[in-house]
UniProtKB/TrEMBL annotation:
It comes from Gossypium stocksii. It comes from the Eukaryota. One of its GO terms (biological process) is monocarboxylic acid metabolic process. Belongs to the UDP-glycosyltransferase family. This is UDP-glycosyltransferases domain-containing protein. GO terms for molecular function: quercetin 3-O-glucosyltransferase activity; quercetin 7-O-glucosyltransferase activity. It holds the Pfam family UDPGT.
């Protein structure tokens, strides 16, 4: 044990699909890993290892598995279906046996990089607890198409002539991958390509064989779902950065190239004079198309080098090779990279397979695109219209590209015909330089190729924070040398090799722990009670864990709210919303308030952050309300990490997200909506701003614009615990770094770990606590109906009357919160006439009320805070939603969580007294089977809430993880 001289190399298995176009880039990636000190092993099939030409100089180990066709490979199977089904059956067992076997050697497998066309390999890796990376050998754009098919967002067969997908140019059907454009063609292959995404969410990394600048928009979009890394182009180093010694070719060929003949023939030709033609290792042209190409080359009378595989030669015109020998060379295979890098080659007539496309792009050779099938049509679209380093030769109505078209395109590319060829040549050189830059030291792909360093760095970070938290002492001195193998804290962890430990981390561990600097987090809620309460409570959680937390409120609210300074140590700072004397009411309308706040707020917040930085308390992170997306832009100006805090449910925000992305068209054309992770929703169960499109347009804009820049946030917080909405949380986690951190209600009602945390500490209304609690004190258990519609909702006079009459007729104890502004809507003498059974107050301490054993049911508007409070305290709900998110919350109360009943309105939108009375009976006075089940479920959720926020619960862990990132 202790220090050792040499760290163990991580061992990575590279597992490509058994085809030339898959093996080459993954084998080259293996060489890159090897050059960085990783032990890399390629896993081909038994048949390929015997029948292909592998270069033993590559220093990559080979280990074989069976595909079920060890004697003949794909050809032995007769059909794609037969080959794929057998490989899918035999392969997993064979791969598992190999990993098990290697585990008993000195080189157990640390990570598996698998071809995405073999998704079952990820399942095998999971069996052994091995980290895994999915490797896509086709472009991001092409795989985005397949992903949309997999998700059902792109329905097949296609109905229109064009397709629009995120981060991609509009695509004509003819520009889509052929398996999608011509549905039913090679169905087995379509299934393989779509199934690449069946389990990809479980992969630790997702690699693409290109460099970031080639497809930045699609890469960024995909990075919302997965840990995407661009690691290419994976072509031999001699053609790019020249950092891998003797790396001149891929090291594996399924066909034997005629190197000497090709290169000798090219050497005497003028610069940029030769057209090189190749259609790869699989594509097969029809006889008519072969003849058109042949006559185009002959008629043009220019130099050409044409690769025609042995199986394709019979399609050439009779005596063609002999008749064109003075200008052309026809070979069965050639060293393509050497050919493309030769200065005499001026143009590449290609099928646009992605490897060939990348090779030409990396070597600066303009392309004449003649795509055949699979991904090639989409690649051709990008060559012509996105990267602009080539021209696509268009077929006629019979699908044949005629010789005249081919000749015309060659003339343009060899600059025999004007400006376009010059522009394409210029772009080709630009892309060549960018490809080289990406794989050179410090380039984007080069950094991503250090993924195993990141992997071990993560383990180091876990070690660091474990030591920090447990105050473990080591007999050894910490170091920040390049690689260190070390035993720390006795048997805390075994000897492991870690990447670089940052100097600051080492100094922190070795330095003075008596006065560590507290991270400073500024919490910025939207200025309304329902937003301030949960975010302020989150601040208290941070404070309890050693974080300096400051609440930012508006000038008006800080002067007009009722706060208890003794109940919390949260600093309060103010900014202006433009209405310092009267707040929202001073504005006169929602539009006026929001427009002014959006104009004044950013400057005021920026001034505060600047001031805090100058006074010795710089801001380490900003947690801002989703209603205030401009706060994120302010944080970015100062380089401050930021977290968006959503005060409404995941379900509700998923609806708004789909609207923001145009995935839910408004006004709604159908009576039901189905969204990922949610139950089917009737229009009446959607948030009112969506269901009643056009109502409150200013607020609609606010809730939808929450997503205008959310992709730029470092964290996305939801005020729930994971188990409450796990399906939606999992779905959203594909886009963002989602953390459930709630429910954020005072600790006294949950885990009791925060001392004296009995209320939120801020109220826009002054509660009549003594009167409420005294009145409740003498009432029997579960006998009182508590009624409240929150701080904002306003009932009509007719609805208030119906509710009052229902309470009076039901003859139950009730405690009804009627805000001062709403009191005039009560029936004449109602308070006096019901004083024996009821108490009406202007505001009350809701948490104290709900936690009182006398309260047996909560008649609520289903505001999300009220819903969470009742759920957290085990109180069944009688749901009477009014607007905004409340109908969706009511749906979940009744049908998902099953902790209440929704009372439905009549055709006039009024819930009648008889309906309310029936609900009260079911939940309070005549509790039947349904009421008992609801009570049982309410207790279940109460316990789950406590578990989620208690030490080690999902929300508690997420808060700890957030804080750890700030240390």
């Amino acid at each position: 044990m202790g220090m050792q001289n040499k760290a163990k190399k991580p061992h990575v298995l590279i597992f490509p699909f058994p085809g030339q176009g898959h093996i080459n880039p993954m084998l080259q990636f293996a060489k890159r890993l090897h050059s960085k000190g990783v032990k890399a092993t390629l896993v081909p099939t038994v048949f390929l290892s015997k029948s292909s030409f592998f270069d033993s100089s590559a220093s990559i180990d080979l280990c074989t598995i069976s595909d079920g066709f060890d004697e003949g490979g794909f050809e032995q199977a007769d059909t794609p279906d037969a080959y794929l089904s057998t490989f899918w059956n035999v392969g997993p067992k064979s791969l598992a046996a190999l990993i098990k076997k290697l585990g008993h050697t000195a080189h157990p497998v640390d990570a598996l990089v698998y071809d995405t066309m073999l998704p079952w390999a990820l399942d095998v890796a999971k069996q052994f607890g091995i980290s895994s990376a999915a490797f896509f050998t086709q472009s991001c754009a092409v795989n985005s198409v397949y992903y949309h098919v997999y998700k059902g967002h792109l329905q097949l067969p296609l109905r229109g002539s064009h397709v629009s997908l995120p981060a991609m140019p509009p695509l004509h059907v003819s520009e889509l991958p052929s398996f999608v454009a011509i549905y039913g063609l090679y169905r087995a292959w379509l299934d393989v390509l779509v199934d690449q995404f069946s389990n990809i969410d479980e992969a630790d990394w997702v690699f693409f064989n290109h460099f970031y600048e080639l497809e930045p928009e699609v890469v960024d979009w995909m990075s919302k779902f997965w840990n995407v890394m661009t690691v290419g182009p994976t072509i031999p180093s001699i053609y790019l950065d020249k950092r891998l010694e003797n790396d001149k070719d891929y090291g594996m060929n399924m066909f034997k190239p005629n190197v000497t003949a090709c290169m000798s023939w090219l050497s005497g030709k003028p610069k940029d004079s030769v057209v090189y033609l190749s259609f790869g290792s699989v594509a097969s042209l029809g006889i008519e198309q072969m003849e058109e190409i042949a006559w185009a080359l002959k008629d043009r009378n220019g130099y050409f080098l044409w690769v025609v595989r042995e199986t394709e030669k019979a399609k050439l015109p009779q005596n063609y090779i002999k008749e064109t020998s003075h200008k052309g060379l026809v070979v069965t295979w050639c060293p393509q990279l050497e050919v493309l890098s030769h200065e005499s080659v001026g143009c590449f007539l290609t099928h646009c397979g992605f490897n060939s496309t990348l090779e030409a792009l990396s070597l600066g050779v303009p392309m004449l695109a003649l795509p055949q099938w699979t991904d090639q049509c989409t690649n051709a679209k990008y060559i012509e219209d996105v990267w602009r380093n080539g021209i696509r030769a268009r077929p006629d109505e019979k699908g044949i590209v005629r010789k005249e078209t081919i000749i015309r395109c060659i003339m343009k590319l060899l600059m025999e015909d004007g400006k376009k060829g010059k522009e394409i040549k210029k772009n080709s050189i630009k892309w060549k330089n960018l490809a080289k830059k990406a794989v050179e030291e410090g380039g984007k792909s080069d950094k991503n190729n250090n993924f195993l360093n990141y992997f071990f760095h993560t383990k180091m970070s876990i070690l660091y924070y474990t030591i920090k938290k447990q105050k473990v002492k080591s007999n050894y001195e910490f170091t920040y040398s390049q690689v260190v193998t070390q035993t720390v804290g006795g048997s805390l962890l075994p000897e492991m090799a870690f990447g670089i430990m940052p100097k600051t981390a080492v100094e922190d561990l070795m330095g003075d722990e008596n006065n560590p600097k507290k991270p400073h987090v500024v919490i910025f809620p939207y200025p309304a009670q329902g937003h301030i309460n949960p975010i302020l409570q989150f601040a208290k959680r941070l404070l309890s864990k050693g974080v300096k937390a400051a609440l930012v409120t508006t000038v008006f609210l800080s002067n007009s709210s009722f706060s208890d300074p003794s109940s919390t140590s949260i600093d309060i700072h103010t900014i202006s919303d433009g209405f310092d004397q009267g707040g929202y009411e001073q504005a006169g309308s929602s539009d006026a308030y929001l427009a002014t706040f959006w104009s004044v707020g950013p400057n005021s917040l920026a001034a505060l952050i600047k001031k805090l930085g100058e006074t010795g308390h710089p801001v380490d992170a900003l947690v801002y309300d989703g209603f205030l997306p401009w706060a994120l832009d302010v944080a970015k100006q100062f380089g401050i990490p930021s977290a968006v805090f959503f005060t409404q449910s995941c379900a509700v925000n998923s609806v708004y997200y789909h609207v923001s992305k145009g995935l839910l068209q408004l006004p709604l054309p159908v009576p039901h909506v189905s969204l990922p992770g949610l139950p089917p929703l009737q229009v009446s169960e959607l948030p009112s701003f969506v269901a009643l499109y056009g109502s409150y347009p200013a607020w609609f804009d606010v809730v939808v614009n929450q997503f205008s820049n959310v992709d730029g946030a470092d964290w996305v917080f939801f005020n729930i615990f994971y188990d409450l909405e796990k399906e939606v949380v999992d779905w959203m986690s594909r886009f963002w770094n989602v953390m459930t951190v709630g429910p954020t209600i005072p600790s006294m009602y949950l885990d009791k770990r925060i001392e004296n945390d009995k209320d939120y500490g801020m109220n826009l209304f002054k509660p009549n606590a003594d009167a409420c609690m005294s009145w409740l004190g003498g009432k029997p258990k579960d006998s009182v109906l508590y009624v409240s519609f929150g701080s904002f909702a306003s009932l009509g006079i007719e609805q208030t009357t119906e509710l009052a009459c229902a309470l009076k007729s039901s003859n139950v104890y009730f405690l009804w919160v009627v805000r001062e502004t709403e009191m005039a809507k009560l029936p004449y003498n109602f308070i006096e006439e019901t004083s024996e059974k009821g108490l009406v107050v202007a505001w009350c301490p809701q948490l104290e009320v709900l936690s009182n054993e006398a309260v047996g049911c909560f008649l609520t508007h289903c505001g999300f805070n009220s819903t969470l409070e009742a759920l957290s305290l085990g109180v069944p709900m009688l749901a009477m939603p009014q607007w905004t998110d409340q109908p969706t919350n009511a749906k979940h109360v009744e049908d998902v969580w099953r902790i209440g009943i929704r009372v439905h309105p009549n055709e006039k939108g009024v819930v009648r007294r008889e309906t309310i009375e029936q609900g009260i009976k079911e939940l309070l006075t005549e509790v039947g089977e349904k009421g008992k089940e609801i009570r049982k479920n309410s207790i279940k959720w109460k316990n789950l809430v406590k578990k989620g926020i208690d030490e080690g619960g999902s929300s508690d862990k997420n808060i700890d993880e957030f804080i750890a990132k700030l240390l």
